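TICKET: design request
STATUS: open
ATTACHED STRUCTURE:
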């Protein structure tokens, strides 16, 4: 599965620029629904977004990330053992273009928190095996907290950076206190 490359965009630099542009669009959409939930905006986004395209974009970004980390091309995503990726993660691994996959995950789940249609679209039955594998990796590396703002609980999703895997239990306990 490949992204469609517009005519005139042929180099790796062009492809990277298009990817950066797409990531900025996802960041913008996510920022529109941060904070206090505006159901009208959420519903408009759910109706306007093509969930299949978003899932495919997350898959493509994750696949490129996995191929880069594992130094292997043409991987079949559903067959990638997460352990091999976890073994090769560096503290800055999620600062790379894979950050877009996290943003897509966060956008889709933020919408699903307030909209039943979006929630349904995140059921495993609406994913192919490769999409679900990519989603599962991102899910395993995403945290969620709930913040009470004037009596309203706001869910906040965030990537769990690989450096967190190397924190000692003592350091983790200190952070929690």
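STATUS: resolved
RESOLUTION: sequence designed for all positions
ATTACHED SEQUENCE:
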């Amino acid at each position: 599965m490949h992204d469609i490359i517009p005519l005139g965009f042929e180099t790796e630099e062009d492809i990277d620029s298009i990817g950066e542009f797409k990531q900025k669009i996802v960041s913008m959409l996510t920022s529109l629904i941060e904070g206090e939930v505006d159901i009208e905006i959420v519903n408009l986004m759910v109706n306007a977004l093509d969930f299949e395209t978003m899932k495919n974009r997350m898959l493509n970004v994750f696949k490129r990330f996995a191929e880069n980390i594992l130094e292997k091309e043409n991987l079949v995503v559903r067959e990638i053992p997460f352990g091999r990726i976890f073994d090769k993660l560096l503290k800055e691994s999620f600062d790379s273009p894979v950050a877009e996959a996290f943003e897509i995950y966060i956008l889709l789940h933020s919408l699903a928190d307030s909209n039943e249609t979006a929630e349904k679209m995140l059921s495993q039955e609406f994913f192919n095996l490769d999409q679900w594998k990519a989603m599962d990796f991102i899910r395993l590396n995403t945290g969620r907290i709930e913040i009470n703002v004037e009596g309203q609980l706001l869910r906040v999703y965030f990537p769990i950076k690989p450096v967190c895997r190397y924190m000692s239990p003592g350091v983790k306990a200190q952070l929690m206190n």
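CLOSING REMARK: The chain has one domain: 12-176. The first helix runs from residue 12 to 32.
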